[in-house]
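Private note to self, pasted from the team thread so I don't lose it. Backbone tokens:
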């Protein structure tokens, strides 16, 4: 993502958070699961397209898809980068059928889905490092790439154990963080996904899109993002009302940044789309974006707000 100030595989196979005894809130049991997902992702190392970590992450996502999704698909494509170079990329879409809202018949809800998205790739180079020798090294991306992916991975298990009323699609985007500074080689996976939507009946498009990115840092504070506010103020207000009702102080109902991220391709399609992000992160695009900068409490707080939001839209 680009922004400006404005004002190893499955380690938790048998872990079943929904079944933990003595939990007053079912989502509380997901705290450890979300963290285990993030630990596993970071253990794979840098996860930029073409790397070993990228291949391991794809296998990890596919395993979760097989376990929990009602259906899923891999969206393989080739992006043109650099001087006519070809970059193989892979999006993953996990679908959870709706059980049907009040008055709906037929066993599952065929209304337009809610799309929850996150990019799983990490930056191939640490270009925000001050040391030129470090700038060409790939980052681990614990927060930038890892945190949003961990939340979607945990959401897959939650939706399996707690089927949603309306359909939900979890989409893991590739190639969000590939481009060099000043290039247009960002958001490659979400842009491709949005382009494919144009070939479908608009009545089947997502009703709303919610993208989570860089939400795992300690003491996370998520301000309202400007493009989201301009495009989907009602949807954004719903999310922040959920946070208020839950007593979640991680969400700050003030505008702070304009951030170019995976929500933009859907905004261009005039789909109400919101980005949740904490862009006050000093380790952005550096080698210091590591697991120790993140917190399971931050992941859980965002997870709980997203879960409740799905019930209200």
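Design output:
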């Amino acid at each position: 993502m680009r922004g400006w100030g404005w004002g190893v595989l499955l380690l938790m196979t048998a872990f079943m958070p929904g079944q933990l005894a003595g939990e007053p809130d079912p989502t509380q049991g997901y705290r450890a699961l979300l963290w285990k997902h993030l630990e596993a992702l970071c253990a794979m190392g840098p996860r930029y397209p073409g790397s070993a970590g990228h291949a391991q992450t794809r296998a990890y996502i596919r395993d979760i898809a097989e376990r929990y999704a009602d259906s899923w698909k891999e969206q393989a494509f080739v992006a043109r980068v650099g001087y006519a170079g070809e970059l193989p990329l892979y999006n993953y879409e996990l679908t959870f059928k709706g059980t049907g809202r009040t008055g709906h018949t037929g066993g599952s809800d065929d209304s337009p889905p809610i799309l929850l998205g996150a990019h799983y790739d990490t930056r191939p180079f640490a270009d925000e490092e001050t040391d030129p020798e470090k700038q060409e090294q790939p980052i681990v991306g614990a927060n930038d790439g890892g945190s949003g992916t961990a939340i979607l991975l945990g959401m897959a298990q939650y939706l399996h154990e707690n089927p949603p009323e309306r359909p939900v699609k979890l989409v893991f985007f590739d190639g969000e963080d590939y481009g060099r500074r000043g290039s247009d080689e960002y958001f490659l996976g979400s842009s491709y996904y949005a382009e494919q939507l144009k070939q479908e009946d608009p009545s089947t498009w997502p009703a709303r899109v919610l993208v989570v990115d860089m939400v795992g840092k300690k003491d996370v504070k998520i301000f309202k993002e400007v493009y989201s506010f301009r495009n989907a103020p009602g949807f954004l207000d719903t999310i922040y009302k959920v946070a208020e009702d839950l007593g979640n102080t991680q969400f700050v109902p003030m505008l702070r940044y304009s951030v170019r991220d995976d929500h933009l391709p859907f905004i261009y399609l005039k789909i109400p789309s919101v980005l949740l992000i904490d862009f006050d992160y000093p380790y952005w695009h550096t080698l210091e974006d590591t697991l120790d900068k993140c917190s399971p409490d931050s992941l859980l707080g965002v997870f709980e707000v997203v879960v409740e939001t799905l019930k209200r839209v």
